[in-house]
Write a structure and sequence with these properties.
alpha/beta; six-stranded parallel sheet; 40% helix; elongated
Length: 344
Amino acid sequence: MKTLYVIGNGFDIHHGLNTRYQLFADYLAENNEDIYDLLLNYYGLPDIKSFSLSDEEYALWSRFEEALAELDYKTVLEDNRDLIANPASEDFRDRDWHAFQIQMEEVINQLTTRLIDAFNQFILAVDYPEVESCSLLHLDEGSVFLSFNYTETLQRIYGIPDEKICYIHEKAGNETSNLILGHGIDPDSFIEPEEKPPVGLSEEELREWYDWKANEYDYSFQSAKDELLRYYTEAFKDTISVIHEHEDFFSNLSGVSKIVVLGHSISDVDMNYFKELKERVSKNVDWIASYYSDWEKQKHLEALVSLGIDEDKIEQIQMKDLLVNHAESTDEEGQPCNSEARQI
């Protein structure tokens, strides 16, 4: 019987990799100010460079993927209203009908394709430090790995071969990679319902209402708005499709006897993957999940139980409990190891 390890960002942080979303914010601020400003202005994310940043504000960047569902599209449209076509202007040209829409296409491109390209470059720039022996974790031989990370930590530090690892969101590459990064809210939930006339109007009032709506319609504005609302689909992490693409991996989990979750937040955006795991393995499988804080411990327990996993089959640990040299917990010079890491 084999062990499945589910690897999250806390695993990389434990091994000294600077992969927190806060550091990605720093990277954007330094290397792509246009995208960074869009995130500050339209997502409610704080300026990571601010000296007055509180701990609570700093922590907002840790939920970066969830924040991607919070685009304030109405403010985006309002801030670009000067691009609405004005056929009454003597400078008007037919191409002006589409200027607003084209600008919204560019905004979407910045917040999807270019954002992911920037994230790929950020991951590629991450250093792999020398890991102290006392920070190494005991991993069962013959295991398989489901990695939510984009790095090569498992290969470089533990010598795990590529064929043992499923990169569910792809791996950063030297060329532009199709990394999967996004929010987990169904795009259909962002569709605005068609406005209906007030109840109780007479036939004449109803005609007047429809005439008013027709006169209110602005092609230039509406086409820009429709374009911008496409963002929620483009930025959606379609976990169901991702699972289907990795069917070979999930279909080979029937022999798993233990699932160890290391450094994963078990957040809502990734819950479909955990649902799939639960369905693919025996109900007698032992689940072991690492946590950083007491609050996170409770959150993880609630998330796993909500999937229908028997609480008696869940064990919660801290990463240090799996240290190879857990008893000594000192480095080669006899100094205590700083082996714990903040999980995000």
